[in-house]
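Lab notes, practical 5.
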Amino acid sequence: MIKQIQILNRYLRGWGNYFLIANAYQLSVDLDHWIRRRIRMCYWRQWRKPRTKVRSLIKLGVPVKMAIDCGITSKGPWRSSKTYGINMGLNDKYLRAQGLLCLRDIWISLHYGVS
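Output from the prediction step:
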């Protein structure tokens, strides 16, 4: 998954430097939310089996009951990626630690020169 995040980062950096020159702050925030949800969905698909999903969520710090509820759900991956348990485990801090860039941060650095 880290390889895909690196490829995505290359694309986000180029896209952000080209399009985010405009005053499109809300667009960058909305796209950032969508990208993070999509990555959560990819992790969820990668884990495949309910047992693996539950183990992985517990490893990420989700309470056992919530991890079991998320792991055995019959919801699809896109809908599941919005649930509280998955967002708790695969939170923004974790995704940033995996190397994912934030479009909001790119926009702020372009407009205000803050690194």
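Observations recorded by the TA: Residues 25-47 form the longest helix (23 residues). The mean pLDDT is 91.
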